[in-house]
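Most newcomers find our protein records easier to grasp once they have seen one. A learned vocabulary of local backbone shapes supplies the integers on the structure line. Here is such a record, shown just as it appears in the course material:
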Amino acid sequence: MEPERTGGPAETGEKKNTFLGGMATMAAALVLVKVIGMVFKIPIRRILGDSYTDFSNAYDIYTVLVNISIAGFPAALSKLVAANHALGRERQVRRLFRLALTIFLALGTASFLTMFFGADALAARMGDTKATQAIRYLAPAVLCVSCMGCFRGFFQGHSNMRPTAVSQVIEALGKLVIGLPLVWVAVRLGREAQAPALAILGVTVGSALALLYLLMCYARRPRYRDLRGGETDGTGKLLRDLLIIAIPITLTASAVSVINVIDAALVQSRLQGALALTEDQSRNLYAAYAGAKNIYNLPASFMMAVTVSVIPAVSSAMAVGRRGRASRLVKAAYHISALLVFPMGVGMSVLAEPIVRLLYGPKDAELSGRLLAILGVASIFVCLVSVSNSVLQAYGRQNLPVLVMIGAGLAMLVVDYVLVGTPGIGIFGSPVGTLCCYVLAAVVDFLLIRRLTPRPPNYFRIFFGPALATAGMGVAAWGSYRLAHLVLGNLLSLAVAILCAVAVYAFLVIWLQLLSREELRLMPKGDKIADLLRLP
């Protein structure tokens, strides 16, 4: 048995992660997870062909149920754990965790039963009866992910991002190492009908292994014999505190996933109805769009690193009355986000067709590239909305992101309905609708934060520098690719363009001094980095 430690957290000498240190851990893991996901999705789509629709539909249903079940509880738990841990109320932390675990198990079990026993009905609702087996194979993953959400929220509340980061990598590796070989073997044996379900099986096994890892981390956590703050709130109050934070976040995430499912059905119905395309023609167009969306989601994955870090960090600062630090953390979150996502979004837009051609081959490269060029710009606003939602939640304004996303989502559906059904626009109306949705949501979020939070950030000062550096980078990427493509193939030209873009952007960030010494101090070894860059 592990020896128990004496004393509270302040006396243990535990090494505490800084806000940006935790964010860097999450970002590194999420980059790896996204790379693994791309390595999985690209060959899966090529191997499955039209059957990829079965995989996609099953995964869409899974996403909706996961969001409804647990989307808000990890963030709620991390916020409450962080606030109580900062005040030394360790007994309250333990009780919060046990209550949250009970809730997660109940919701996960309900979602599992819905997917497993309702697979036929769910597949019929999606208009894809062949997805039944895939939906059923994915059902256990919902229960595993529900339990994982509780442990991740607990560790994030203690500013320990490593268990969350490692578990996400394990989860991603499961579908790659298990799902991809199973699909390949199934197709080689002529069992194409079972291939989508076997791809899904990799997701389920990966989530089970990730849950096992988190259980091991929890078993090895530091134990405190002297739990400070002997008095704890009642179960009713703790449940109310969790639900007040979790329900709005859950509604926000659920609204987004539900609207996305409705939008997918709307776009295809408008292509077939208003433009009189056949089902196969509509399916081909939407497949090209789906391929572009897989790439477009890359910048948003980085924002999870920011959002899971900003909520507990700001909550802890506010709990102990350090409003100045909370304000600096919010500014740092926006600034680091802009430095990351501005170049990714613009680079994705100016190099859209070469990227698609490299990843998916020449088929539909021009169409998918033009769609991705629009989505690249939209991805910037998606990320800013994600950070803004976390800021509002950290300041206790949990209801506002729900209303903003529902309103922006409804606006997207209207834009898509009109544009997709317009001859000459068609499928291009969908990424335009996405762009309009997130521009609207970002602007409204900025106005709300400026009005409702103490010491609101100066958006112009935060975003102007990264935007200026990104503009120079975009010109360098566009020009270098076209010059290199005169004598080189697509792969080498793209590599030259990316290297030139990175070099130009790094130079401009340093030259314009877009990273301050104060911000770097929030990072591990920040002073040494600042000295290396000769920052004042």
About this structure: The chain has 20 helices and no strands. The radius of gyration is 23 Å. Residues 172 and 425 are 36 Å apart (CA to CA).
